[in-house]
Structures are given as structure tokens and as C-alpha cells.
């Protein structure tokens, strides 16, 4: 924790589902002196700015290379198809940047953004909030301390209670890029292993938008890591009981789970077991709000002043490669090596 940081002047681009949440967190943060909201829909930015008592501006003004607003940081919460270009612009202006996941929709754009950030030596953070979750942090510590022995298998899942709006699906990159990329990132972070091969399958049920966009409503990916650890990563856009995120880790000396908390939307039907005791998680904001708060706090106190990033563009590129390998596996109905993703 860095306590000697001066308050910042920040702009937040993209006032949609997650942008509104980030705006609320930033507007209430003691290290944010000035917050400017911008969206390609200026009305949307102006309305949220009025609600939160902060400013709004046009996107072109925020991204003006002369920096007329004297900003010292940028938060990007726009649609995924804009992330790489906006990161390159931020590197050109020299604004330390927090950008939502995934870094881009394809590897070429992602590598271009990574190169621009590294060449400009720009402090940056890619938003993978699970790195700030107490459960995932404990799981990582257990593995590091050898308390599970040698990790042999895992099972991860991310399931939404209802699908996103149809309009969101075409630009999202599909479920592996949009949703399971969180599982891929956190698996690398918790286990310290690299994925070397995937086999992905699934089905497109419910909204026609899934089939029309070559996307899955429900999916399973089988992953193999560089040390032989194997596991599966599930997703669903129709997990009626609630928002569910889990990671099971099975080692030679013990097993551990992240996400089997009192609100997990998963009931036990065994005699004498009353689990879970509380109402299920509704959505990702309810489940992860404290993590988004910690992540933005880390950006303001550490990344923006040049301390090591908790999630670099390089990390985001590795998670993206696993998602892209899943897309290739889906399209070609075969196991795909990560080394094929070039
Ligand atoms: N970390 C997480 O858990 C998490 C959760 C949800 C979404 N996300 C990511 O956040 C991003 C946004 O998702 P969302 O669900 O909020 O989408 P959304 O469609 O609700 O909102 C995106 C907003 O960005 C605006 N916009 C688009 N292009 C812009 C540009 N060039 N400049 C300024 N504004 C622009 C749109 O008008 C819209 O208001 C996506 O990349 C998504 O993957 C991350």
C-alpha cells in the first residue's frame, strides 16, 4: 500500500454496464480529485456525471494529444473492439491507463497495444479483478506453500444467470474471450503454470444471437498445462440459479475450492446438508464489487505512480491466446496447441 500518493485527475471512457460501476467507485475515492466521464454517446456521460457530481467531456477532448484537461490518468471501459486502439492512443499521449479485459479481439491488435505500452514505458493495468479476490489469493498461497502437494487437476467455471443483450454479442469476441478469459487469467495467476493445449466445445441454445455470431451459450474447454496438469473450464449464459464462479484445485496432498461460499448458486441434495444458507449471487457486480474497488485502488496508489502493475499487457496477451485457441478449437473441432496462435 502506497500512502504518499497525491490525488489524481482522471478520465473514464465508456459509461456502460461496467463503466457506471467504475464511475461510482472512482467518484467516491479519496485519491480522485477530478473525474471526467466520456462516451461516444455524450448524453450517457453527461447523465451519469450529473448523478455523481463530476464532469463530462467529449471523447475527442479527453484523447486530445495536447491534454487540454490536464489529466494524469485514463480508465477505459469501452467495448472490447476499441481497447487496443485506445491503449495505443493513451501510450501516445503518455497517460497511465487502466483498461478493462480482454485487451483486444485478436492477437495482432493485442500485440500492437502491448508494444506501444512497452515502448512508451507507460504504467498500465488490464482489468482482471479476480487477482484482487481473497479466495483466489488464498488458493495461490496454498499452492505456493505446497499445502495441496503437486497440483494434478482443476475445474473452473463462470456462469451468468441470464445472457447479455443480443447487441453485446457480436462485438464481445464470443464466450471464451468475453467470459472465460477471466478463468484463463486467474488459472495462470493461481497456479503459475502455462496452458499448452486446449480442446473446446459447446452449444448455441436460447437466443439466436449465439448461433448467428458463431458463439456458444454453454461451453466446456479442456486445458492441459506445461507440467501435465489437466482441467476443464465451463461457461453458461443460462445458469438460472444465479451468478456462479468457481475454481476447484485437486493436488496430491489436498484439494481446495474458490467460490463455494454461502451464496454459491449450487444446491446440495444430500441428507442433513443445508447448503448454501444464503440467497445466490445475482451478477458479477454483486459477487466482485470489493475486488473492483481494490483493483482501482491499486491502480491509483501503485500503477499510476510507476510501481509494478498487478496485471500487464503481457499477462493479458497470454490469457487472450488461450481464448483464441479455444475459438480455433471450436471452429476446427480439434485440440489446438497455444503455440499455433501466432
Ligand atoms: N472485468 C469484468 O468483470 C468486466 C465485466 C463486464 C464488462 N467488462 C468489459 O468492459 C467492457 C465494456 O463492457 P460493458 O458490458 O460495460 O459494455 P457496454 O456496451 O454496456 O458499454 C460500453 C460503453 O462504451 C461506449 N463506447 C464504445 N466505444 C467508445 C469509444 N471509442 N469511446 C468512448 N465510449 C465508447 C458505449 O457507448 C457504451 O456506453 C468490455 O470490454 C467488457 O469485456 C469487464
TrEMBL record:
Q: Which residues form the Gfo/Idh/MocA-like oxidoreductase N-terminal domain?
A: 11-123
Oxidoreductase in keyword set: yes
Q: Which residues cross the membrane?
A: none
**Molecular function GO labels:** nucleotide binding; oxidoreductase activity
Instruction: Identify the residues that the record assigns to the GFO/IDH/MocA-like oxidoreductase domain, covering every copy.
Output: 136-256
Give the source's domain of life in one word.
Bacteria
In its UniProt entry, the species of origin is given as Tessaracoccus antarcticus
Family per record: Belongs to the Gfo/Idh/MocA family.
Q: What is the name of this protein? A: Dehydrogenase
Q: Does the keyword Oxidoreductase apply?
A: yes
Q: Which UniProt keywords apply?
A: Oxidoreductase
PANTHER family given in the database record: BINDING ROSSMANN FOLD OXIDOREDUCTASE, PUTATIVE (AFU_ORTHOLOGUE AFUA_2G10240)-RELATED, NAD(P)-BINDING ROSSMANN-FOLD SUPERFAMILY PROTEIN-RELATED
Spell out the SUPFAM superfamilies in the cross-references. Answer: Glyceraldehyde-3-phosphate dehydrogenase-like, C-terminal domain, NAD(P)-binding Rossmann-fold domains
Amino acid at each position: 500500500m502506497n500512502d504518499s500518493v497525491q490525488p489524481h485527475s482522471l478520465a473514464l471512457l465508456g459509461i456502460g454496464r461496467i463503466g457506471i460501476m467504475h464511475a461510482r467507485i472512482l467518484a467516491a475515492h479519496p485519491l480522485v480529485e477530478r473525474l471526467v466521464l466520456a462516451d461516444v454517446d455524450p448524453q450517457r456521460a453527461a447523465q451519469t456525471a450529473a448523478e455523481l457530481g463530476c464532469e463530462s467531456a467529449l471523447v475527442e477532448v479527453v484523447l486530445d494529444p495536447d491534454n487540454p484537461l490536464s489529466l494524469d490518468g485514463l480508465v477505459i471501459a469501452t467495448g472490447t473492439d476499441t481497447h487496443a486502439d485506445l491503449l495505443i492512443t493513451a501510450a501516445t499521449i503518455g497517460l497511465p491507463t487502466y483498461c478493462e479485459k480482454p485487451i483486444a479481439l485478436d492477437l495482432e491488435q493485442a500485440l500492437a497495444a502491448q508494444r506501444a505500452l512497452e515502448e512508451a514505458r507507460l504504467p498500465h493495468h488490464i482489468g482482471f479483478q479476480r487477482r484482487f479476490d481473497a479466495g483466489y489469493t488464498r488458493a495461490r498461497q496454498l499452492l505456493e506453500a505446497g499445502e495441496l502437494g503437486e497440483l494434478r487437476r482443476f475445474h473452473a467455471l463462470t456462469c451468468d444467470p441470464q445472457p447479455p443483450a443480443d447487441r453485446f454479442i457480436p462485438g464481445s469476441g464470443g464466450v471464451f474471450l468475453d467470459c472465460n478469459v477471466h478463468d484463463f487469467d486467474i488459472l495462470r495467476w493461481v497456479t503459475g503454470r502455462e496452458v499448452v493445449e486446449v480442446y473446446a466445445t459447446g452449444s448455441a441454445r436460447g437466443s439466436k444471437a449465439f448461433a448467428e455470431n458463431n458463439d456458444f451459450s454453454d461451453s466446456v474447454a479442456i486445458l492441459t498445462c506445461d507440467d501435465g496438469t489437466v482441467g476443464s473450464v465451463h461457461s453458461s449464459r443460462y445458469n438460472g440459479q444465479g451468478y456462479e464462479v468457481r475454481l476447484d484445485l485437486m493436488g496430491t496432498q489436498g484439494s481446495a475450492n474458490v467460490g463455494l461460499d454461502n451464496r454459491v448458486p449450487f444446491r446440495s441434495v444430500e441428507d442433513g446438508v443445508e447448503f448454501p444458507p444464503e440467497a445466490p449471487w445475482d451478477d458479477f457486480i454483486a459477487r466482485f464489487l470489493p475486488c473492483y474497488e481494490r483493483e482501482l485502488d491499486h491502480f491509483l496508489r501503485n500503477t499510476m505512480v510507476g510501481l509494478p502493475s498487478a496485471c500487464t499487457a503481457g499477462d493479458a496477451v497470454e490469457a487472450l491466446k488461450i481464448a483464441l485457441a479455444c475459438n480455433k478449437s471450436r471452429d476446427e473441432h480439434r485440440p489446438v496447441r497455444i503455440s499455433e496462435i501466432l
